[in-house]
Design goal:
The complex is a heterodimer of chains A (256) and B (270). Chain A is mainly α and 256 residues long. Chain A has a single domain, classed as MetI-like fold (Orthogonal Bundle). The longest helix of chain A is centred in the last third of the chain and has 38 residues. Chain A is elongated, with a radius of gyration of 22 Å. The longest helix of chain B has 18 residues. Chain B has a domain of 66 residues. In chain B, α3 packs across α4. Chain B contains 7 helices and 10 strands. In chain B, a hairpin with a 2-residue loop joins β1 and β2. Classes of the chains: A mainly alpha (256), B alpha/beta (270). The interface between A and B is medium-sized, with 17 and 19 residues.
Chain lengths: 256, 270
């Protein structure tokens, strides 16, 4: 199951082939004149946009505020998703009571929340963080509740037969058995947190990567627009990688 | 490595088990069905009793009642003279499947069976001891999916013994194993039982297994007068001869024929 370190690094490098090819294709399309420079600036323009934004001290600011919103929103949303998902998975009455409503709320598209959140919570940080939390909540809730509900009843019975109940049953059987699902739910929740972040920042903000996107559209700066998209991709991948490393460490302990 | 024979007081202190007029009804689809009715059985401390009977007759239900995983509708189960209420700490169960935690190594699975007050170096010592008893010392760090079914079931046996049970309850523990592994496991169980000195109540559908291991065989089933009624004790048969028993013994062979006839399996006439 586990890859040796010697075998993992080439896999890593293989993953870089496609991005490099995309940059080459991009460069080719820009220089061949398929699109105008305003529509598709070459990679070098985006690099100089990076320099420009760093020079003005803005880039770090946008990245930091977006990351902060995602992290706080994800922490709150996933914590609630874990708690409620665990409850609904373990308790039949709780499932009967809560599950239909939660599923219905889940069906509401992310953008539909924005006007209401602005109305209720103003235009500060809170509505953006709340929207990220809503985004992170559902994948965590769904995976955790179904994982906990489908834990092998035989193992639960072993726990009972060996005197475990309550918190000790949760810690020795239920939680370890659900750990792989919980971790993948967290990764999905984080990815969806980034999606909802952009939805929040596109509409009402003066900072952050979503704002950078909408601002570059208004000022006709396609290079900045591309930069914002690349940064969103990179940050999303980076935060997922961090969780992936945490997952590997957790699951190694899990199998150990 | 810890020396298996001298490492610790391995005897668990066998206790008696009394099943006093136990009945159990189940309700399925609004219909009430009595599975067990007025089961009476006394198992002395240190005795090995096999529960034999056709499948679906409530053997496993009786075992679950004995360890507190289930509650009788009538009557009581007494362990060492005290009634069982809730999970019984003096009993340990081995199920038909090993049921090991896949995220724990074999030694950590055995450690799961330890009583709550056994911790630290003593816990490690006990785990090493019981792993040695079932011959898995070298596989302590393996995970359940890395070992064979027989080894997994031996681990489950060690986990049960680590609980230091006064009564060891075995629910068809070898039924899922291949024939040869099953015979080896039976011999292992006989050895382990005499080393641990625990009372054993085992469910089996294998007459030979019962004859090989038990002091007494209890035949469970519906009485002849009400063939559709709840199962009860139909017959108690003492098994002659000291253990370890010879699988080819003539007296046991005769008993085997008699028991099979009781179970409705005919023997061709010669």
């Amino acid at each position: 199951m586990r890859l040796t370190p010697g075998r993992r690094s080439p896999v890593w490098a293989v993953g870089l082939i496609l991005p490099l090819l995309l940059v080459l294709a991009w460069q080719w399309a820009a220089s061949a004149g398929v699109y105008s420079r305003a529509q598709l600036p070459p990679p070098a323009d985006v690099l100089s946009a990076v320099g420009e934004l760093i020079g003005r001290g803005e880039l770090w600011h946008h990245v930091a505020i977006s990351t902060q919103r995602v992290l706080i929103g994800f922490a709150a949303g996933s914590a609630l998703g874990l708690a409620l998902g665990g409850l609904v998975g373990l308790s039949r009455p709780a499932r009967a009571l809560l599950s239909p409503t939660v599923q219905a709320i889940r069906a509401v598209p992310s953008l539909a929340w924005v006007p209401l959140l602005l109305l209720w919570l103003g235009i500060g940080e809170t509505p953006k963080i709340v929207l990220v939390a809503i985004g992170a909540f559902f994948p965590v809730y769904t995976t955790v509740s179904s994982a906990v509900a489908h834990i092998d009843p035989h193992l639960v019975e072993v726990g009972h037969a060996y005197g475990r109940s309550g918190v000790r049953l949760l810690g020795t059987v239920l939680f370890p058995a659900a750990t792989p699902a919980i971790v993948s739910g967290l990764r999905l929740g984080l990815a969806q947190g980034w999606l909802f972040l952009v939805a929040a920042e596109l509409i009402a903000s003066s900072m952050g990567l979503g704002f950078l996107l909408i601002d570059s559209q208004n000022t006709g700066r396609t290079d900045v627009m591309l930069l914002a998209i690349i940064l969103l991709a990179a940050l999303g991948k980076l935060s997922d990688t961090v969780l992936g490393v945490a997952e590997r460490m957790l699951l190694t302990g899990h199998v150990r | 490595m810890i020396d298996v024979d001298t490492s610790m007081p391995a005897r668990t202190g066998a206790v008696s088990l009394e099943i006093a007029g136990v009945g159990r009804d189940f309700t399925t689809g609004g219909r009430r069905r009595a599975v067990l009715g007025d089961v009476r059985l006394s198992v002395a401390a240190g005795e090995v009793v096999a529960l034999l009977g056709p499948s679906g007759c409530g053997k496993s239900t009786l075992l679950r009642l004995a360890c507190g995983l289930d509650t009788p509708t009538a009557g009581t189960v007494l362990v060492d003279g005290r009634p069982v209420r809730g999970i019984e700490p003096r009993c340990a169960v081995v199920f038909q499947e090993p049921r090991l935690m896949p995220w724990r190594t074999l030694e950590r699975n055995v450690a799961y069976g330890l009583p709550r007050d056994v911790t630290g170096p003593r816990a490690r010592q006990e785990v090493a001891h019981w792993l040695g008893v079932v011959g898995l010392t070298e596989f302590a760090r393996h995970r359940p999916r890395q070992v064979s079914g027989g080894m997994a079931q031996r681990t489950a046996l060690a986990r049960a013994l680590a609980r230091r049970p006064g009564v060891l309850l075995l629910d068809e523990p070898f039924a899922a194993l291949d024939a040869l592994t099953r015979l080896r496991m039976q011999d292992l169980l006989a050895e382990v039982r005499s080393a641990a000195g625990t009372t054993v109540l085992m469910v089996t559908h294998d007459v030979d297994e019962a004859l090989h291991l038990a002091d007494r065989i209890v035949l469970l089933g519906a009485p002849g007068s009400t063939p559709d009624g709840p199962a009860t004790v139909r017959l108690i048969q003492a098994v002659p001869g000291a253990r370890p028993r010879d699988r080819g013994d003539a007296e046991l062979a005769a008993l085997r024929v008699a028991l099979l006839a009781e179970l409705g399996v005919g023997v061709p006439e010669r």
